[in-house]
Amino acid sequence: MKFFFKCFLIITAMMSNLLSSQNGSVLSDTLVNTKNAKIIVDLPVPKNSSAKNKKYPVFFILDSQEKNIVDIVKSNISYLQNFGKEIPEVIFVRVEIYDRSKLYFGEGVNELAGMLQKTIIHLNKYNALNYNVILGHSNSASFVLDLANDINLSKLFQVYIAYSPSQTVDKLNIPSQDVNLYLSHGGIGQYENSFKEETVAYKGKINSINSPKFKLKYDYFPTANHNTIIPMSIYNSINYAFDPWIISSLETDFIVNNKYDILKNLKAKYHVLEHITNVSHEISPNEYVYIANLYYGIEDFNKAISVTDEALAGTSPKDSDYYKIYFNRALYYFEIEDISKAKENIILAKKYITKETDEYNYAYPMIVYYDKFLDIYITTANNADREKKIIKLLELIKNEKKISNNNLLVNFIKKHLLEMKK
């Protein structure tokens, strides 16, 4: 183990120099290199000076029978980061084992766990959150389960991900702190069929202890074999690992049960996230509008208005998205036939939108358009004059791209304009 500690001292000095570099988006370095294992760390480089104190969750990827597992997992996380914008940037830790039958089982478990523990301690000196995820497949998934089952070692990680473990644990210990485990296996091929019975039995043991500290997300993919279980499990396991950051999952719960209090649960989720990051998380105007529109979608207009009432009280008029609250309230009030309130709110939307708003060139024409629609709707002019205005606005829908591309508002206004023409 002397070589291990010497390696740590050398790399500590190297990392302190590397962390100040701004030449790339990721800094990679070998933190441990012994005769049994290599541990490589990929650190995000702050994009600017304001982000230099930003902290990141840590994602450990153990090697597996599928040699490309690191690339598969990293590329999928990168895709979800760019596509959904909800999954945070992470520090990746790649763990390569030279003898998988030695370090993943028996006495080797403690040796490898010691390396991981020292890696965590080392990274905490820099920009790592105390939020560690570990993922394994096959033999390394068995190691993951051993860690989760050890009363002392289970404190190292907040989330454990095990794809198709080659073996589980005989006696399950009740953890002293929360353990979040994602477990999956497939149903095709010799490996999966031989592991299936033991994995299902292990799942039953977790359910039988009925401990609130041991949380399990379990997936069975009947068409997956021992290698395809990886891509089939990735989406669910990544979302499970980063659930405190993911808001869209609340919409799924709301769709299943529209009595689900999405705003209350978002506040609870942010409370958890504040505990993880030690950073205050306030609900933004965009998020309030997102929630209000879910109620608008099920035609609970009064609830949508209630959510925006809280939004006006709980957010700052200086926020560049503040205008969106008023803009959407105008739609909600129209639906409950309070046209004067709709008009009042669209005027306020026009007041609070500024040219500094990223969407100004797109959003301002929409506000003006909706304001014109309300003027037509409440006009006392003769029918011929009103119909001319209706035709003009309908033409605008066809010709003005900034307006015609907003399907939600266009469909809403078009519907009422056409009704007015009848």
Automatic annotation (TrEMBL):
Signal sequence range: 1-21
Keywords, comma-separated and alphabetical: Signal
Keyword Signal: yes
Keyword set includes tRNA-binding: no
InterPro entries: AB_hydrolase_fold, TPR-like_helical_dom_sf
Protein name, per record: Esterase
